[in-house]
Amino acid sequence: MVIKNIAGAALAAACAAALLLSVDAALAQKTKGKTRPAATKQLMKGIVQPNCAGLGASLKDKGPADDEAWSLAETRAACLNEMSYLLMDDGRCPDGDWANAAKTLRAGSEAALKALAGKDLAAAQAAFKQTTSACAACHKAHKK
Q1: I need a surface site. Which of 32, 71, 104, 111 has the fewest CB within 10 A?
Q2: How far apart are CA 8 and CA 1, in angstroms?
């Protein structure tokens, strides 16, 4: 009976340790990739935030003022689209919320690119709204 209790306790401890390690691994994947040095917060601060803010600003009111401004808006949308891939790469994705948000970011930024190429402000604004909804969904699930 004592041996069964010791074996049961050892099994329970092993399961608890495995669970804690898997939780730690999931948290590590949200904050950093497995092999590359950039932390997720660095990618957000260095790529997502400036491009999202810049794109949003360029789509206000009458939209981009000239061809150069339209091109810059396209570049910003392209950077956001690339981030949808980076956020899924290198073991960074911890769950379905993250994956769905990355998919929505990809679709929204791709639609924005198409609209911007055609200088369609209304379509670009709608696509940008879809893009930012991806950010909001992921942040709701993961941002402290």
Answers
A1: 71
A2: 10
Q: Does pTM surpass 0.85?
A: no
Number of domains forming the structure of the chain: 1
Per-residue pLDDT reduced to its tens digit, 79-116: 999 999 999 999 999 999 999 999 999 999 999 999 99
Distance in angstroms (rounded) separating the CA atoms of residues 132 and 15: 39
Report phi then psi at 87, rounded to 5: -70, -15
49 within domain boundaries: yes
Residue found by looking up tokens 């993961």 in the block: 142
At residue 114, what is the residue type?
K
Residue numbers of the domain that contains 88:
32-142
Tokens 């040095």 found at:
37
β-strand partners of 32: 39
